Amino acid sequence: MTLSIITPKVYTSQGVAIGVVGTAQVKINGSNDEMLRYAAEQFGGKSTEEVLQICMETMEGHQRAIIGNMTVEGMIKDRKTFSEKVFETASLDLHNMGIMVMSYTIKDISDEEGYLASLGQAQTAQVKKDATMGEAEARRDATIATAYAEELRMAAKLTNDTEIARAKRDFELKKATYDVEVNTAKATAEMAYSLQASKVQARIMEEEMQVKVVERQQEIKIQEQEITRREKELDSKIKKPAEAEKYRLEKIAEAERVRVVLQAEAQAEVQSVRGEAEAYAIEVKAKAEAEQMARKADAWKEYKEAALVDMMMQVLPKVAAEIAGPLSQTKKITMVSTGGGPVGASKMTGEIMDIMASLPETVKAMTGVDITKKMAQTK
């Protein structure tokens, strides 16, 4: 919140009545709960205008008090001091109300009696006088000071250059001495390090050789133990098993040989018995076939025509079956009729019967036996 603090007529410590206008920035102090509590206690239930009026009156009272303790000249020349005093004293009171003064500055100073104008004219004349005299004195002092300063500068430059040269010489001498000492120490250290490193390396090599000797001895012992172990292992796992395997294979070979011999003898005996049996069977079969053939021959002689008729009667059903066999395997028959005869199943069966009726003629042509005549005579 911005406050314009106006005090139209206040007497200074000199008794001069002046008017001062100041500007202040204030706000509710919300930095902590205690400040908010103070503000609530002081301004609870008041409007913003009332709060601003209280702050303004407080600031105006402190502004009047500071004006009464200062001179006009002091206020004009040192406005900062005036502003700081008003700011400090007002901040204390407003702080207890929960209000923070953020800033305060003097905006204007005025009077109705012309004191400030007179003071300004006298001050202006004095200032001009002082300025003229001051300018001449300043020019004189400047010339003297310039000459003196140049003298001092040259003396200082010579002194400085001398000191720089002396310091540079001392530095170079000390640096050379230090370099000699450093290089000597460095060389000594490097030689000592090399010597020590050589000794350490030699000791390490010696210890490594000892370690290698011990390791070699251990390897020899281990190899000897391994050789002994391998010999025992060879004896237990190879030699003895080999001898046992040899004995086993010999026994197996002997048994196999005996088995082969016995099997060959058995097969030979079986073949011999089988050959004799087959020969006897062939002989018996041949005798039976010969006897049967003889009987058939006799029967053929006595009953030649009757036998042929009987044979043909046995064969005719088989012939009929073979003739009708393809027809029984047929899935579909398409028949085309010209209108001049029977159609359908009667046509198919009629053709089969025609084929069967032609068989006696065929038999007669082949054997000279008239089956139809013989069957009629039998009846």
What does this structure look like?
The chain has a three-stranded antiparallel sheet. A hairpin with a 5-residue loop joins strand 1 and strand 2 (17-28). It is 79% helix and 9% strand. It has helices at 33-43, 48-68, 72-77, 79-96, 115-302, 304-328, 345-357, 359-367, 371-378; strands at 2-11, 17-28, 99-110. The mean pLDDT is 78. It is mainly α and 379 residues long.
β-strand number: 3
Percent helix range: over 70%
Low-confidence stretches: none
How many helical stretches? 9
SS strand fraction:
5-15%
Strand order of the largest sheet: 1-2-3
SSE series: EEHHHHEHHHHH
Helix/sheet category? mainly alpha
Q: Look at the structure and give the mean pLDDT.
A: 78
Oligomer: single chain
| Overall 3D form | elongated
End-to-end span in angstroms? 159 Å
Radius of gyration: 78 Å
Largest sheet: 3 strands, antiparallel
Précis, in short:
The chain has helices at residues 33-43, 48-68, 72-77, 79-96, 115-302, 304-328, 345-357, 359-367, 371-378, and strands at 2-11, 17-28, 99-110. It has 379 residues and is mainly alpha-helical. Strands 1-2-3 form a three-stranded antiparallel sheet.
